[in-house]
Input
Amino acid sequence: MMRATRLFPIWGLWLLVGLTGCTQAQNNPTPDPDWIFGYDKNLPLGPEESVAEETNAYTCYKVVYRSARDQRVPAFLVLPKNRPEGQKLPCVILMHGLGGDKSMLKMLWPMLTNAGYALFAIDAQYHGERKPKDPLPFFGVYPYYSRDALIQTVIDLRRAVDYLETRPEIDSKRIGYIGASMGGILGAIFAGVDERVQAPILLVAGGNWKIMMDKSVLSVFRQNRENRPSKEIEQALKAMEIVDPIHWVGRISPRPVLMINGDADDVVPVESNKALHEAAREPKKVIWYKGGHVPPPTEMPKVLDTIMRWLDEHLKGQAQSTSFWQEWRNRLRAAAALAALALWQTLRQWMMSLLP
Output
């Protein structure tokens, strides 16, 4: 009897902890981000660095650094050559879409480096140099595979910031983000769980996996709808729930977030876009262009101008009536037009590779 009495406070404490956890889960279904996206902050980065490319405008370094779970993450660090001696630079992390890699947004490098921004881009888990010899379908019949890859990539992005903090050229207080499609979805989570990211830009991103599963024309979602029993789809959506960006994008506040979407997007459907917009908190800015998942050539200059204005305002503190993109376009009209067209062609080819 004495032994039972002595044990009761221990069991009682565990019971109270369990009940408290249940109550918190009911009031706030999103757990502490460190439970999912946490890692050892003192884990050595062990970076390997070498020059990959050099132009008149920038030097590109190949970087490979250590992340959680024994991952080595390949990346590009791009430093502009026009930086003043001793001046720290704002840096923009660029994140590719599904099936892409760290060079997917390379068409933006000249414009951004000429505007004075350093750049950093990584390969997501199972993409680029990290793609296995026998890859499984992403967002396909193995939802835990996709969920864990998204979690790993968010941690890899957090480790990217750790690396940037070690670089003497980079102002760690001015780290921005541009993510397209899956990169935008990742950015909503990444910026939501890491306060070091300032004023992220989420391009053609969305939230609510059920909407995407039900309505996206992306081949992997369509094949799921056509070939999998509804019960399996429900289980897959349940597995992916924890990495639904609608649960994390609100945590970006009070930092500002810019979301740019096409009003006829059927890859990340408009309803999914709106779900992410609604989940985000102020200050937020939503821009709609006329077109689908890739801005058409007629809309691309507007998108690029919006991006440059946003970066200049929030990473440089320059709210200018004319953005760098506009000045560059006015000075080098033919070059700017070719850059916008090349970006459209690159993104168009990427999107076509994802469709049936």
